[in-house]
Amino acid sequence: MKRTGNAVWNGDLKTGQGRLTTGSGVLKDTPYGFKTRFEDAPGTNPEELIGAAHAGCYSMALSMILGEDDLTPEEIRTQADMTLEKSGDGFEITAINLKVRAKIPGASGEAFEKAAEAAKSGCPVSKLVNAKISLDAALD
Question: Domain 46-139 in CATH: superfamily?
Fold first, then answer.
């Protein structure tokens, strides 16, 4: 299985503009630039897209692990907060905090915590990133 993402960039770093497109077509020429990445201007940036991918991957991994214990989540809500920091001559994602809230009928706190931790380390996106990943998980 392969998935594709594409980027086109025109111009210099601070005034240039880029466009992101996914193979599925969900993103098609979605604009991004210096201001959306480093100055909180409206628009997207690579870090929030990685965060969304990590949150989605984590939620699916948690659902799978819970299913192995015959638990079916009613809802899993995951937020991934990415920390982008200056490092040497560039920047790096230094930390990711996953915040998950879930409604899981019949789940004990212990079973949920065990599954939540397993999903944090087992999700393919977690395995990809080289940053400290913290987790704040709670049943609703």
Answer: K homology (KH) domain (3.30.300.20)
On the question of pLDDT at 120 being above 90, the answer is: yes
The pTM of this model reads 0.91
Phi, psi of 132 (to 5 degrees): -70, 125
Domain with CATH 3.30.300.20 in the chain: 46-139
CA angle, residues 117, 120, 126, in degrees to nearest 5: 160
For residue 92, what are its two tokens? 């790096």
The pLDDT mean for the chain works out to 94
3-state secondary structure the chain: CCCCEEEEEECCCCCCEEEEEECCCCCCCEEEEHHHHHCCCCCECHHHHHHHHHHHHHHHHHHHHHHHCCCCCCEEEEEEEEEEEEECCEEEEEEEEEEEEEECCCCCHHHHHHHHHHHHHHCHHHHHCCCEEEEEEEEC
Mean pLDDT of 53-72: 97
Q: Six-digit token pair at 122? A: 């087992």
What pLDDT is attached to residue 82? 94
